[in-house]
Write the C-alpha cells for this entry.
Amino acid sequence: MQPIQLKNICKTFRLGDTEVKALDGVCLDIEPGDFMAVIGASGSGKSTLMNVIGCLDQADSGSYLLEGRPVGELKKHQLSDIRNQRIGFVFQGFNLLPRTSALENVMLPLLYYRGELPAAQQRQRATKALQQVGLADRMHHEPNQLSGGQQQRVAIARALVNDPAIILADEPTGNLDSRTTLDVLALFQNLNDQGITIVLVTHETDVAEHTRRVIEMQDGKIQRDFKVENRRLA
Amino acid sequence: MKWSKWIVVALRSIARNRLRSLLTMLGIIIGVGSVIALVALGEGSQADITENIAAMGTNLIIVVPESTDSHGVRGGAGTSSSLSLADVEVLRKKAKAISYVSAEVRLSEQVVAGNSNWNTTVQGVGKDFLLIRNYQLAKGGFFGEREVSAKAKVAVLGQTVAKELFADQDPIGQRIRVRKTPFQVIGVLAEKGQSNMGNDQDDIILMPSTTALYRLSDGKTVRGLLASAVSSEKISEAKEQITAELRKAHRLRDGEKDDFDLRDQSEMNSMASQVTGTMTLLLSAIAGVSLLVGGIGIMNIMLVSVTERTREIGIRLAVGARGGDILCQFLIEAVVLCLCGGLIGILSGLGIAFGLGQIMGISVSVNPLMIVVSVGFTLAVGVFFGFYPARKAANLNPIEALRHE
C-alpha cells in the first residue's frame, strides 16, 4: 500500500485582503521506502505541503490518503493520533524540551500513545531509537549538554520511536555546520536503507542530492519531479 | 491517559521553576495559612471560654433578687433583699430538678492573721457550695450541716488568701480575724485561676452562710442563691420549679412580677459564641479575599507560562498530544500548584497557631473539617483559575506554536 497519495490539493491563506494560494492543485504519490527532497524558494508552498502531509494542517480541497485513510475527513483528535503513531517530525530548530533528558525527549510521543504500553517497554523502545541514531551513550544528557548534531539526532530518534509510516524533516540541516550536516544526512540514508520513508524539505541543492527523488515547488505547484541519478553518499 | 503520569509531568514542571512556583503559591500559602492559624486559635480560645464557663459550676443556675424600686428609683440587680435562707430550704425540699442549692452572702472584708492582713471577698455559703461551683479542696475539710446551723466560726481559704496571710505556713488550724470575730481555718481550696471576666477566683474566704449573715452582715441580705440542675437537659425544668417555689414562698399573687431573677450558663455560652461567631465570619471574609487574590496570581502566572512555553506546547501537539491532553496538563499544573500552596499554608498555619498559642497561652484546637475544607477550596481555586490558561494552551495552533520564538 502506498503510504501517501495526494490528489489536487489546494490550500489558500488570507493575508489581509490578499489571498495567497500556498498549494494549488498538488498531486503527489510517495512510495514506501522512498527518500524524497522537496526544494523551492521560500514562499513556494513547500512548508505548507509538509504541514498537510504531516496532518498539522488540512487542505481546503483535494484528497489526501495516508495509508488508505482519507485525512481530509478526520477530526482534530484523530489527526493528533495519526501524528502520534504514523508520522515522525524533525525540525530545523531541533525542538527538544529543555531541561529534559534525551531519553525522556524521545519518550515524549509514547506519553501520548493511546494504547497499553508499560513503562518498561516505553523505555526499551526509546533506548532502541537512541541506539539507531548512535546516541545510546548520551541517553541521560540534557539538550544543553549536547552538540547541535547530537540534538538533531535525538530529534530523529524521537521521530522514529513510534515506528511511523513516514518521517518528515523540515530543513533538518539548516542549523548545522557542513560536517554535522553530512552526519545527519548519512543517518537519514542509513535509516532509508532500512526501509523507512523520508520526506525532507530543504533549499540547499547539495542536500537534495543525497536523496533518491526531488520535487521542486514553485507558486504552490510542483514544477519538477525527478529521480536523483547519481545519489551522493554522505 | 493516566492521571499519575500528568501529576508527575506537572510536578516536574513546577520543580523546574522553583522560585517562580513558590512566589505563585505565596498568595494561597498566606490565605490558607492565616485562616488555619486564626481558626485554630479562635476555636481554641472559644474552647477556653466554654471550659471556664463550665468551671463556674455544673449546670449552674444563679438566683438573684430583683432590683429595689422605691418610689420609681430603681436600685439595680440584686439590690433588694427578697431572698432569704428559708428559700434555700424550700428549694432543697421541693425543687426536684435541682441536685444542690446554696445561699450566697458576699462581703468585702479586711482579714487579719497574726501580723499580716488582706482585703478579700468573704462568701457565706451552704455545705454543697463546692459541688455547685466546682471547687476542689487542696487541704483540710469543709463545713457541713452542723456548722451551718450552729453559725460556726470556721473558714476555708482560697489559695491567694492563704498565700497572702500565711505565706509558706500551713493555715489549717490557724486563727484569722474578720471584724474582730475569730475564725478557725479548717480547709484550703485548690487553685482555680482567673474567671472569664478576669477576676481571681482564689481570692476568697468561704464560711457558713449563717455565720456570714448573722455574725458579719445585717442578718437579711442574701446576695443570691446558687443551684445546680440534676443534668444539663433539666436546666429549664429546674428554672421553672425554682420560679414556682419561690413565688409560692414569697406569696406572690398571679400577675405580680417576680421579685428575683434567674440566670444560667447557656446565656453566658450564647454570648461567648456570638462573639466568636462574628470573629469566624470576619476570618472567612479574609480567607475568601486572600484566596481570590492567590487564585488570580495563579491564573496570571499560568497565562505567562502558557505564552512562555508555546513552543513546548507546539512540540507536544506535533508528536500527537490532543488538545485535551494539553488542557489536562496545564489544569493539573495549576491544581497541583494550588494544592502545594494549600498544604504549605496548612502546615505553616498550624505552626503559627501552635507557636502563638504557646506564647500567648491560648489553647489551640485543630478542626480536621477546616483542613478538609481548605484543601477543597484550594482545589476549586486551582480548577477555576487554571481553566482559562489551560484552555488557551489547548487551543493553540500547532504550526504557529512551533514557529513561536
Notes: Chain A has seven helices and ten strands.
